[in-house]
Amino acid sequence: SQQGEEDPQALSIQEGENATMNCSYKTSINNLQWYRQNSGRGLVHLILIRSNEREKHSGRLRVTLDTSKKSSSLLITASRAADTASYFCASDRNSGNTPLVFGKGTRLSVIA
Amino acid sequence: GAGVSQSPSNKVTEKGKDVELRCDPISGHTALYWYRQSLGQGLEFLIYFQGNSAPDKSGLPSDRFSAERTGGSVSTLTIQRTQQEDSAVYLCASSLELGSLRGDTQYFGPGTRLTVL
Q1: Cβ pair B106:A88 closer than 8 A
Q2: Tens digits of per-residue pLDDT, A56-76?
Q3: Residue B100 and residue A30: Cα distance in Å, rounded?
């Protein structure tokens, strides 16, 4: 079953605004990753945050992790039309060698 | 190659035909994954390989689906007697290791868009 669940399912904002997407997961993790997908093709890794980290930055991306709430958020600041894509969180399961579990994704539309 | 490649990029087939989808992972990556994605939907996990071994095949939708990996490299996903509901984008990904505490970042191919008429 899907461990990661993103919300909202879809988000539409104006260029220049910030976009926040949330992800919840069910079991304890070693790390959580965020991926981006353009036009239904391959996903691209954006950022990884470890279970002992609370916040991580990469350019205009900021990821937070709250292990007590089993949740993470992805913030894109000063959004651009080119940020339009689907964003997925993916969590591992702190229970051995098992693959990442991807959420259903948030479809972000940035309107110029 | 530099990234994960998949072939064909598009496949149109008639209901009842068999199809074979191919994935070439990044060289040296021991883990390989197959996913399916219907239009506008999330990723549906199908199967993963650690080396040539697939420890868990329970994600395959039916016994018409099978996958193999040879030489720890190329993988093929075979769908027998295709049905219209098999129409989707099939994505392959690879990672250096599986379940690494350093994070098994997955690198995705561009996908194969399968259309069953």
Answers
A1: no
A2: 999 999 999 999 999 999 999
A3: 9
